[in-house]
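Quick question, first post here. What does this chain look like in 3D?
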Amino acid sequence: MTNSAALLDRGIRRLNNELEILDAERFIALLIRESFDYTEWRRDNLFVNMSLDEIIDEADKYCKENAETTL
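> Answer (accepted):
Ran it through. Tokens below.
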């Protein structure tokens, strides 16, 4: 398990790699301001209408495309 400081650093780096700085800051502000339950959101929105085989295929594809960053 990663310590809190390392997790925050890693998360911010990922946000900055994916979003422009202002959008990353807006995203963080939205999370803080809104009542947001990630576990509930993930259950209700992630992998909706996907079979287990489709999820596994997507995971395999992601791992192959990101092999150097997931090691």
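Residues 27 and 33 are 10 Å apart (CA to CA).
The two ends are 16 Å apart (CA to CA).
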